[in-house]
C-alpha cells in the first residue's frame, strides 16, 4: 500500500512538471530590433485554430507597406539580418498568396505591414499551418525562427521573397 502511494505521488510530480512546458507552447513573442540593434517593436504570437496569430506593434519605420515574413532561423544579427535564413517553408511551397504555381504560399508568408505617417504600425496576421508545438511546421523547430520586416512591400507572388527588398528589422521568436 505504501509503495502504491509513493508511486502515485511520483507520477503526480512528473505530471505536474510537464504542465508548465505544455502551457509555454500556447504563446510566444519576439522583440523586434532595427539594423542598429535598437528595439523598435514587439510581436505576440498565440495558437489560433489551424495556425498562429501574430500581433505586431512597431515604430520607427518608413511610412508605407513593408513585407513581413517568418524566417527559418532564430538569429537576428544586424545590420542585414541574413542570419535569419530564408522564408520558413517546410512544405517546399512557392512564395506568395497570389502565386499561380502550386503549392503556395510558404508557411512563413504574411500579408504586408502598413506603417502610418508617424512610422508606427499595429497589425494582426494569421500564419496558417504553423504551430507552436512539435514538428517541422513548428516555430520552435531545431534552430528556431524569426520575424523579419523588409524595406519594401511584398508583391505576394514572386519567388523567393516577393521583391520586398532589404531586411530592415528582425526579432527572434521565443517561448
Automatic annotation (TrEMBL):
<keyword id="KW-0479">Metal-binding</keyword>
<dbReference type="InterPro" id="IPR001424">
    <property type="entry name" value="SOD_Cu_Zn_dom"/>
</dbReference>
<keyword id="KW-0862">Zinc</keyword>
<dbReference type="GO" id="GO:0005507">
    <property type="term" value="F:copper ion binding"/>
</dbReference>
<keyword id="KW-0560">Oxidoreductase</keyword>
<protein>
    <recommendedName>
        <fullName>Superoxide dismutase [Cu-Zn]</fullName>
        <ecNumber>1.15.1.1</ecNumber>
    </recommendedName>
</protein>
<feature type="signal peptide">
    <location>
        <begin position="1"/>
        <end position="23"/>
    </location>
</feature>
<comment type="similarity">
    <text>Belongs to the Cu-Zn superoxide dismutase family.</text>
</comment>
<keyword id="KW-0186">Copper</keyword>
<dbReference type="InterPro" id="IPR018152">
    <property type="entry name" value="SOD_Cu/Zn_BS"/>
</dbReference>
<feature type="domain" description="Superoxide dismutase copper/zinc binding">
    <location>
        <begin position="41"/>
        <end position="173"/>
    </location>
</feature>
<dbReference type="InterPro" id="IPR024134">
    <property type="entry name" value="SOD_Cu/Zn_/chaperone"/>
</dbReference>
<dbReference type="InterPro" id="IPR036423">
    <property type="entry name" value="SOD-like_Cu/Zn_dom_sf"/>
</dbReference>
<dbReference type="GO" id="GO:0004784">
    <property type="term" value="F:superoxide dismutase activity"/>
</dbReference>
<dbReference type="Pfam" id="PF00080">
    <property type="entry name" value="Sod_Cu"/>
</dbReference>
<comment type="function">
    <text>Destroys radicals which are normally produced within the cells and which are toxic to biological systems.</text>
</comment>
<keyword id="KW-0732">Signal</keyword>
Amino acid at each position: 500500500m505504501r509503495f502504491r502511494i509513493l508511486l502515485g505521488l511520483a507520477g503526480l510530480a512528473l505530471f505536474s512538471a510537464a504542465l508548465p512546458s505544455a502551457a509555454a507552447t500556447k504563446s510566444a513573442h519576439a522583440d523586434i530590433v532595427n539594423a542598429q540593434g535598437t528595439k523598435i517593436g514587439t510581436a505576440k504570437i498565440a495558437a489560433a485554430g489551424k495556425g498562429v496569430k501574430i500581433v505586431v506593434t512597431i515604430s520607427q519605420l518608413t511610412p508605407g507597406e513593408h513585407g513581413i515574413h517568418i524566417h527559418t532561423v532564430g538569429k537576428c544579427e544586424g545590420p542585414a539580418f541574413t542570419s535569419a535564413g530564408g522564408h520558413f517553408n517546410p512544405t517546399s511551397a512557392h512564395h506568395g498568396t497570389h502565386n499561380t504555381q502550386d503549392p503556395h504560399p510558404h508557411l512563413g508568408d504574411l500579408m504586408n505591414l502598413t506603417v502610418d505617417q508617424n512610422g508606427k504600425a499595429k497589425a494582426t496576421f494569421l500564419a496558417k499551418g504553423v504551430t507552436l508545438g512539435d514538428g517541422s511546421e513548428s516555430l520552435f523547430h531545431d534552430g528556431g525562427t524569426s520575424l523579419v520586416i523588409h524595406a519594401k512591400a511584398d508583391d505576394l507572388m514572386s519567388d523567393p521573397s516577393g521583391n520586398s527588398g532589404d531586411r530592415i528589422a528582425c526579432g527572434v521568436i521565443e517561448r
